[in-house]
């Protein structure tokens, strides 16, 4: 591990003033500490932001607002989340282990780096870690890798369960920098790899996530997060589906659907949503809609099972919601 300087600013303004080239923000540390030890990330300056006033879960102007430093475990259990937005609570509870959920923050979860083994192995080439060095995953071990949004430079899967649920609900991230504040739709915040996989998101140098907001959605109470993985605890998704349904008189009036474990970023499925709208809440209609879930997929040698598994995951989530009273 390489040496770095350390500071613990007490205000957002102070943190932004200290941030610059070669700096990294430290919150829960469940990603950064690992990557620094591996020398995958080598910050020169670490800014401990745990003292900043970026906490709280509240409804403001009709939207759910979650502070960036709220712990994952606390948010999952919060009454403003667990009841009105079960898809968020379930995505959080299916993430990592209880110990990590007690440490990890909302902002940190959204900024966690891929679990691609080549990215984390500094002896391997990786365009995301060392631009231009190559992507061994395209021809090597790629069972866990993406099938949507990939490029000839990268096929790394986005790891966050929470981000999938938030994208399904049209959430936004609120950002602060020395130049002021701005908000970005989470669906636009994450970037496709293209030829520059090292650019993972729309964060500007020194910019800080301050909170996340979720627009009001009356029928979000009928929502769920289904995650398919190799084991039931502390494992990343092979496929996942975040689904919310407006279901009345046995007919789907509207739907929100996003997928995880399959994309280089959280993957919204508008074609599935459109096919569901106006359809009867029956298994055959769900299967017809889910048939569009993997449109445009580019499977690799070891993950050709993912398109069908994704379709089945979406159907499972829809059937679960349709069966709720």
UniProtKB/TrEMBL annotation:
SUPFAM superfamilies: CO dehydrogenase flavoprotein C-terminal domain-like (SSF55447), FAD-binding/transporter-associated domain-like (SSF56176). Keywords: Oxidoreductase. Residues 1-219 form the FAD-binding PCMH-type domain. One of its GO terms (molecular function) is FAD binding. InterPro entries: CO_DH_flav_C (IPR005107), CO_DH_flav_C_dom_sf (IPR036683), Diverse_Substr_Oxidored (IPR051312), FAD-bd_PCMH (IPR016166), FAD-bd_PCMH-like_sf (IPR036318), FAD-bd_PCMH_sub1 (IPR016167), FAD-bd_PCMH_sub2 (IPR016169), Mopterin_DH_FAD-bd (IPR002346). It is an enzyme of class 1 (oxidoreductase). Its EC number is 1.17.1.4. This is Xanthine dehydrogenase YagS FAD-binding subunit.
């Amino acid at each position: 591990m390489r040496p770095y300087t350390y500071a613990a600013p007490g205000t957002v303004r102070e943190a932004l003033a200290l941030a610059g080239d070669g700096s990294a923000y430290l919150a829960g540390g469940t990603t950064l500490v690992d990557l620094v030890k591996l020398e995958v990330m080598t910050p020169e300056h670490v800014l401990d932001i745990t003292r900043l006033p970026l906490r709280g879960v509240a409804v403001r102007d009709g939207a759910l607002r979650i502070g960036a430093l709220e712990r994952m475990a606390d948010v999952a259990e919060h009454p403003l989340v667990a009841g009105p937005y079960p898809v968020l609570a379930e995505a959080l509870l299916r993430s990592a282990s209880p110990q990590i959920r007690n440490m990890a923050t909302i902002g940190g979860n959204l900024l966690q780096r891929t679990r691609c083994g080549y990215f984390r192995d500094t002896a391997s080439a990786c365009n995301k870690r060392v631009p231009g060095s190559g992507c061994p995953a395209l021809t090597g071990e790629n069972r866990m890798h993406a099938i949507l949004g990939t490029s000839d430079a990268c096929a790394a899967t986005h790891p966050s369960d929470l981000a999938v649920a938030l994208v399904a609900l049209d959430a936004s991230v609120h950002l602060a920098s020395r130049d002021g504040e701005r908000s970005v739709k989470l669906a636009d915040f994450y970037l496709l790899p293209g030829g520059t996989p090292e650019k993972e998101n729309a964060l500007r140098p020194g910019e800080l996530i301050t909170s996340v907001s979720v627009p009001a959605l009356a029928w979000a109470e009928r929502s769920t997060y289904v995650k398919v993985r190799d084991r039931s605890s502390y494992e990343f998704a092979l496929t996942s589906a975040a689904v919310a349904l407006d279901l009345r008189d046995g007919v789907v009036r509207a739907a929100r659907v996003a997928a995880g474990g399959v994309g280089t970023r959280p993957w919204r499925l508008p074609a599935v949503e459109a096919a569901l709208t106006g359809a009867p809440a029956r298994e055959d209609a769900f299967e017809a809609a889910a048939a569009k879930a993997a449109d445009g997929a580019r499977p690799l040698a070891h993950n050709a099972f993912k398109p069908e598994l994704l379709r089945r995951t979406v159907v499972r989530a829809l059937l679960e919601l349709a069966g709720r009273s």
